[in-house]
Amino acid sequence: MSDGAPATRAQRLRTAAFGEHHTMHDDTFTVLGLAGSLGRRSYNRALLAAAIESAPEGIEVSSMGLADVPMYNPDFDEHLGSGGPFPAAVEELVERVSAADALLLVTPEYNWGPSGVLKNALDWVSRPVGASPLFEKPVALAGVSPGPAGTGRAQLQLREHLLSTNSYVLQQPVVQIGDGKRRFDAELRLTDEGTRELLVAQLEALREWARRMAPRAVRG
To answer: Which of 2, 26, 33, 44 could be 63's S-S partner, Cβ–Cβ 3.0 to 4.6 Å?
Structure first.
């Protein structure tokens, strides 16, 4: 690995499958945000935009849309280790998840669960099992709903999914925002300062969590 530390078995397997994507960051802690909604006027996409805008000094949050990611097909697993071919959007997703110091997953709640869009993206980057880009990846969860529930049930299911990938899911602070209409203006700009402060606190906690759980992968 580029910091001189010996590679773990999982890191060696991941490199063999996808190549060496992860780069160490000397000054900036990088977070990739994935919003699990395709809606044009999505509160959750707006919440991710607010996280990007509000990121504290030393933390850089970027995002990737998931509309072009095809449905997961296990037939592609046979190409792991051979360099592909994979769909272009999947290649980009794998590269960006691998390169980020941590993930921020922002999910709506559909029928008491996370969106299929987000679950599908996680299925793609969960391969190879035991050595995927999600292996030992620090992850924070957030979500906003029109009603009072705040996507709590969806986030609970995501936590269970991420146990299977051996990801490091941040426990606190919890970002489960209800009554979304009161938090944003007509242009979906976040107006609720309490929510903004919570996003900042979560990003700062995520950076500290990553330093504790995956110190070789974080220098920011």
So the answer is: 33
